[in-house]
Structure formats: C-alpha cells, structure tokens
Write a structure and sequence with these properties.
434 residues, alpha+beta, eight-stranded antiparallel barrel, 49% helix, elongated
Length: 434
C-alpha cells in the first residue's frame, strides 16, 4: 500500500519557514474576511480595515519603498503605484512575521493549519474563477468591438484595447474561456477533484498572466498572484504529480484536504463554510452575471439616435462653415453612437474625453423638448454640449446648440461605410487565406 503523501513527508526546517511566510502572505493578500462583506454590517467593519491598510501602505512607501511620492489608488488599473506599494508592504510584513514566528514557535509540524491555508487558497481561486468565468460565459467582460473602435485606426489603439477587441470579437471563444474557468472553480470546491482543478486553473491563469504581460493589461499583480496560488497548491503535491505524469508510476493518495472535525459544532461550521462558498461564489456570481446580461440586452439607445456611425456632412462653428479637410483634427468628422447611450466623435475635442484620438461622450435625450445633452464620458457627468435636434429624414438629423462659448450647427447622415470585421464572418471551407 502506498502511504498518504501528507503523512510520509516530515516537515524539515526549510518547509516550516516557507509555510510560515506563505501563510502570512496569502492570508494578508487574500483577506478572506472580505468574502462576507455582503452580510449586513460586515461592509461597515471593512471600511476600518481598508483605512488601516491604506495608512500602513502609505507609511511604508514614505519610509522605505518610495515607489511614487504620491501614491495613485487602485482604480480601473490594478497595477497602480499603490498596488505595487501594497505588495511590497505585504512581503515585508510576511518576512518579518516569519522571522518572529520562527524564533517564538518551535512546533514540529503545522498539518491542521496548513489544511486551513490550502482551503482558503483554493476557495479564493474558485471565487476568482466564478467571477471572471461567468461574465465571459455571458460575453460581458470583453464586449464586441464598438462603432467607435471600428472607426479607430489600428495604430491608434493601445495593446490592451487590441487584446480586448480580439477576445470580444468571438462570443464562441470568450464563452469557451469562461466555461473552462467555471469548470476549474467547480473542481476546486471538492477535495477529491482539487488537484485536477488546480492543474486546470494553473493553465488558465498562466495564460491570463502572460496575456496581461504581453499586452500591457494593468491586471498584472492580480493575475500573477492567482497563478502563484495555483502553483502553491501544485508544489505541495509535487511528488504525486511527478510520479503520475513523469515517472509513470502509482501516485500516493493525498490526505492534504482530508480533515475530520473532532466536535459536532466544528463539523457543522465546516459544512456551513462550504455552503457559503457555493452560494457566494457560484450562486451569487451566476445571479449577478445573468442580471447584467439581461440588462445589457434590453438597454438600447434612446431616440432620436440609433446605434451606428454617422458622417458629419455640415459643421458650422460660430456661424462659419468648416470644410471637411482630412488633416483637420478639430472639426467633427463623424459621430459613433453606441448602445447604452454612449458615443464618440472623430475629432480631438478637449470638451469631451480624449481616447485613441477620438473624443468620447455619454448622452441624455429629452424627446419632449427635442433636446439632447452630451456629457464628458469619464464618470464626471460634466455637461459638454447642449443641442436641440431635428429629424431630417430616416437616416439624418441636425444638431443645433452650444459647446461652451461656441455655437454649433451640425448635420449628421448615417454612414454607408461598412466594417468587414463587424460582419462576423465564419467559414468552414476557406480556399485561401483572406
């Protein structure tokens, strides 16, 4: 009989030191107490935790790291100066904690504590799998290229936006990627399939991390850490994996995830924790993603504008007609109207949000008064333009109003320009490379 791998491997000094370091670091990085912030009152308590963490990171950066004089908080980017300062802070705490723990504690092994660490790590990976998996299954993380993006020259796009459009173009590929993540999460929930789930998740998140590195996607810190969590679970079982995959011999059974509580209340608590992970991770993310999908499917553009690309056939600024010169970046050349009342202008207009050499906006129509407002599309809600509109025919309309101190009169006509990429072409049989 092959002995169980957990009981036949004694804890040497190096293993105990590494365990102490990773125990402190993973617990601080994962912060499992934040999982239950959906419970009333927990979110109120968490604000003090985050305030203390922000203060500590700022203090350590000012005293030791000096990454930036003024740290930028984590926003749409997870790789801000605060994000890197936080990682450095946690690493330093884990290193100092390991030294103190080693001096104070002379225990031989940490079998039960290691069980709980592995439980927290694998549940955290599962939650990440469900979060990102379901939004991919419903094609929500990377949307299909918008009219604004289709009208943007390829060379104006940043690598991240290019990768987002690549993923968003194919619902099939994005859904397949999400389904694999959900499958990995399901496998990680059950101890008998945890090793298989760790292998699948490691492959998924290694690819994600390399994509983030290769396309400069600002989620490098997070994706690398999730892959390292998968690697941590696999390294623990390296002897079994080597026996099975490389040496072609019987692998020892693992009791790493086997734990029988000694008391009834502990067993009940363990079952409650498992149920909570299933509800929070699987049910909650599925419910939210489906609601988002339903909302996205029903949220259409408001009249009078319909989604599409419109050419600016006439642009009158302060009473003067501006000709449509190709090298004129200030005159509005076209307007892209997207779903969900967003859009962009083919021009460099500083009153709007500049991105990829286009000017983005959100809009709110007032059909009763035939008016429409363009807002700076960057979450500020600042009003950039006010127009009255008139429907000229089925494919064109006019806008008359003001942009700051300037008066504008604009005539828009639905563009006849077609985008082959938007045709979603697919061929089983291809006689040539198109």
């Amino acid at each position: 009989m092959i002995p169980a791998v957990q009981t036949c491997q004694p804890w040497n000094t190096g293993r105990k030191i590494l365990f102490r370091f990773f125990f402190i670091y993973w617990i601080l990085f994962i912060a499992p107490w934040t999982w239950f912030s959906v419970i009333p009152g927990i979110d109120w308590l968490m604000q003090y935790y985050y305030q203390a963490l922000d203060w500590l990171v700022g203090f350590m950066n000012g005293q030791l790291f000096h990454i930036r004089e003024q740290l930028v908080p984590i926003n749409g980017s997870g790789d801000t100066s605060f994000g890197w300062a936080q990682v450095c802070t946690l690493l330093l705490i884990a290193a100092c904690g390991t030294v103190a723990w080693t001096v104070i504690d002379r225990k031989k092994e940490y079998v039960r504590l290691h069980y709980w660490l592995c439980l927290i790590v694998r549940y955290n990976i599962a939650l990440v799998c469900f979060l990102y998996g379901f939004i991919k299954v419903f094609h929500l993380q990377m949307p299909f290229p918008s009219y604004s993006q289709l009208a943007t020259p390829l060379g104006d796009l940043l690598p991240m936006r290019l990768s987002w459009m690549f993923m968003g173009y194919s619902h099939l590929y994005q859904g397949f990627s999400g389904a694999l993540e959900v499958l990995a999460g399901l496998l990680l929930l059950y101890r008998r399939t945890t090793t298989l789930g760790s292998l699948l998740a490691a492959g998924i998140f290694l690819n994600v991390a390399m994509m983030n590195l290769g396309y400069d996607i600002p989620v490098k810190i997070f994706s690398i850490h999730v892959f390292l969590m998968c690697a941590y679970l696999l390294v623990i079982e390296h002897r079994r994996l080597i026996d099975f995959f490389i040496l072609n011999r019987a692998a020892a059974p693992s009791v790493l995830y086997q734990y029988t509580p000694s008391k009834r209340w502990m067993k009940a608590g363990k079952n409650v924790l498992k149920l909570a992970m299933i509800v929070l991770g699987l049910g909650f993310n599925l419910y939210n993603s489906y609601n988002w999908y339903q909302s996205d499917a029903t949220n259409k553009t408001l009249p009078p504008l319909q989604a599409g690309l419109y050419d600016v056939t006439s642009f009158v600024l302060n009473g003067d007609t501006v000709p449509p010169l190709l090298n004129d970046t200030l005159r509005w050349q076209n307007i892209a109207i997207e779903q969900n009342n967003l859009g962009s202008v083919g021009a460099i207009d500083t009153s709007l949000w500049l991105r990829y050499n286009r000017s983005y906006f959100s809009y709110e129509p007032d059909t009763a008064n035939h008016a429409i407002v363009f807002k700076k599309s960057q979450g500020t809600g600042d009003i950039a333009c006010r127009f009255s509109y008139e429907q000229l025919d089925s494919s064109s309309f006019s806008l008359r109003g003001r942009r700051g101190k300037d008066s504008l009169f604009i005539v828009l006509k639905r563009s006849k320009r077609s985008f082959p990429l938007a045709e979603r072409q697919f061929h089983w049989l291809s006689e040539r490379n198109r």
